[in-house]
Amino acid sequence: MCGASLYDVSPVGTEAGGVAHRRRMERKVIRLPRESLHIAMFSVHSSPLGRIGNRDTGGMSVYIRQLALEMEKRGHRVDIFTRRQEADVPDMVRLDSRVRLIHLTAGPVRPLSPLDVFPLLPDFLKALERFKNDQDLFYHLIHSHYWLSGRLGAWAAPRWNVPHLFTFHTVGALKNLYCQKDRTEPLRLRMEHQLVKEVDRIIAATQMEKEHLTRHHGISPCRIGVVPCGVDLERFRPLEKRMCRAHLGLRAGEFVIVYVGRLARLKRIDRIIRALAHLRSDDGIRLMIVGGDGRLTADEIALRRLTQRLRVQDRVTFVGRVEQEKLPVFYNAADVLVLPSEYESFGLVGLEALACGLPVVATRVGGLTTILQEEVNGHLLNDGNPLSIARAIAKLRGTKGLPVFSPQSLRDSIREYSWSNIAAAVLQEYEMAMDAIPGLWGTQSAVEMSAL
After folding, report:
1. Were both Cys, which of 204, 256, 307, 339 would link to 210 (CB 3.0–4.6 Å)?
2. pLDDT per residue over 47-63, tens digit each?
3. Could you give the CA distance from residue 306 to residue 295 in angstroms, rounded to a whole number?
4. What is the pLDDT of residue 10?
5. What are phi and psi of 285, to 5 degrees?
6. CB environment 268-293: b (16+ within 10 A), e (fewer)
7. Could you give the domains of the chain?
8. Cα dihedral sign, 445-448-450-452
């Protein structure tokens, strides 16, 4: 019998199955208290403090950081392990009193692609074990993020005799169903297929992701929970539009479209630029593209050339990377956020925009398919055709310049996605994974909590 997951529309829970689960069932377990956990999070290739909008830093970094901070508010301790990419970063950074980001050295101290990081995982595991033993640390569970960290977690969990929970953030095989050019590497596909059989529990971001995993990987739905991304409702909130526009140097009468995210090919920013060309007769429209690596990449060069070829370069602003704490000004200065991606694991920036009172136009992919509702908070596109995008933008302009939606109604539509609620749902997933091991929970602690 499966348990109930807060954000799942079908039964989920735990079952007696899975290679890692059966292996640990045969070993001695430790009785643990429910009140306080020490959680090891793995984010090997991407730091939660990395620059958002860079090639390998996006919504996953926000997710890990915010989830860890919410766990701290509930009295839990979190250690986040990531690979050192810069020589001058401290070995340990405290994000809060009970949340630590720990940089471990494995391979050259510089940014590397995920495929280049993969052969370094054994070295990372050795550094991880040294740190854990030197600090005399005990962890109650592992929560790994992305396939590289999942591989690491599958090695560490049986060594530590703890449950291993895994979040894909992007499922390679699912991405391939939508992206014809930006294909997932065969190595990653093999690793992901192997991982789903080894981990104790999977936390999927959407019901669609769960259904894909059960259908194509043969995983029981009882081993998969559904918990979406969250949004910081204190940071992302409605601000005075006129002041935000003045701060950014925008004209008061302009209709401003904003895109926020990585300048990757699968994001299909070219579709917004082509949509702008369909609206060429209306010179009161401006597009702001927010994101990038801080350097001129091939993807950005291609987008800039497209604006020139379509003769809309005067109405497109490439803002570059913006720190997350400054994003609310851009959301509040705009009239609509457009996300025309081929594939999204969730679409976190859509939540941020709605929290700021900004409507969203998006393709029918990722978590926004369940969040966006016509006549409520935006528009879902059945395809990414630029003409369809242009029509949706025109519709949102409203009558006589008046907005179609009120900022407060847009914000109210996503209040349930607060990080507080998301953390509560993730904690439920942690309990399901730990409850699957008899005797792991107990009312009396046999663990020396001072070691935490």
Report:
1. 204
2. 888 654 455 556 899 99
3. 18
4. 39
5. -110, 135
6. bbbbbbbbbbbbeeeeebbbbbbbbb
7. 19-230+418-446 (3.40.50.2000), 241-416 (3.40.50.2000)
8. negative
